[in-house]
Amino acid sequence: MQRIAILGSTGSIGTQSLEVVRANADIFEVELLTAANNWELLARQAIEFQPSAVIISQGEHYDKLRSALSNEPIKVYAGAEAIEQEVVNPAIDTVITAMVGFAGLAPTVAAIKAGKKIALANKETLVVAGELIIPLSLKYNAPIIPVDSEHSAIFQCLVGEQSPIKRLIITASGGALRDLPPEELEKVTIQQALRHPNWTMGAKITIDSATMVNKGLEVIEAKWLFGVEHTDIEVVIHPESIIHSFVEFHDGALKAQMGTPDMKLPIQYALTFPKRLPLDTAPYNPIQPLTFREVDERRYPCLALAYGALREGGTVPCVLNGANEVAVARFLRGEIGYTSIARHIERAMEHFEKEKICSFEQIYELDRRTRLFT
Length: 374
Ligand SMILES: NC(=O)C1=CN([C@@H]2O[C@H](COP(=O)(O)OP(=O)(O)OC[C@H]3O[C@@H](n4cnc5c(N)ncnc54)[C@H](OP(=O)(O)O)[C@@H]3O)[C@@H](O)[C@H]2O)C=CC1
Ligand SMILES: CC(=O)[C@@H](O)[C@H](O)COP(=O)(O)O
Ligand SMILES: [Mn+2]
Description:
isomerase activity, binds ligand 3, 2 domains, seven-stranded parallel sheet, globular, Rna Polymerase Sigma Factor, Chain: A, alpha/beta, binds 1-deoxy-D-xylulose-5-phosphate, DXP_reductoisomerase_C, 15 helices
């Protein structure tokens, strides 16, 4: 039995992870579920999956959650610190990091230090601190298996491969605004930006997909996961999101992993690698045309900012990420326009001096200062 913690169980990745668990109840059992505010869904999940513990990080919901589970043999905790304390429980084998944003870093560090297998969906963890996370996972023998669809695709292409990677080609849908004339981007509504053409995801990553910050974060994530320099990582727009990325080898051979857009596949594979379990997903139609486009930097200025942050290295990706999280939250609250997101990121990157990364405390402090500045 693989005993699983799902950090962020009430979100898009979290709920799909529970679908995978439900379909394979003979293989997986749930030890820990966490959420931020959605105590009602968390309570329903707890009653169905009977974890040892649940955690709601926003304490104001604790009493309601506790009373909803008053007849269940389930421990109930509140607060972000509780996630770091409970995720190291020896009864947990695998941690699915499905929280969104920088908040996922600390619990992931705790899980790594406890030697857990990490099914990593929270890409921000590697963006802000990959330089520390990768050596830490080696030191504590905590394997990191990517859930992010492109990185899962690359990981799947590398299974059994002995040869070094020559080039990664990461595919991008182009996001919700890919066909909008660039001059109309200034005025897009939140609803327009949230209408992703291929994937149903949480709000933050959906906006990141529209700006292509997501793809920039994924380039940084790929560097840390696969040890490939930014000069050997390319991005291509592939509107159908069927090819989830390519790996090119030095003999010119390319491998890709394909499939209809369904995050349950990379989630399940991260849990069962190197085995594959059956999965009920939409069949691929081999006569469906597959198309590709170049990235228009005028439409997606954030991608160049992310490449710049990666080229700079050190603490610059942490600044990029913090400014983006603040800007996206402001956009989603209707406080700023869509094209201001790039400007927020640029200003923050210009403001903060690049530093060499020395510690997690340095990253926590820089993230805090970046949010205050942005
Ligand atoms: N969705 C997708 O298809 C993909 C997502 N990813 C990555 O996976 C991660 C999760 O994305 P997604 O599922 O879309 O996100 P969602 O916004 O759908 O879900 C986020 C989850 O994290 C919880 N959460 C949010 N903020 C905090 C916090 N400060 N402390 C503790 N818990 C918190 C939420 O709780 P609550 O519900 O109570 O708010 C929810 O359970 C992201 O890093 C994303 O980039 C990567 C590839 C694909
Ligand atoms: C499903 C997944 O992995 C997301 O990260 C997805 O890639 C977002 O789509 P974009 O390709 O539009 O960024
Ligand atoms: Mn992705």
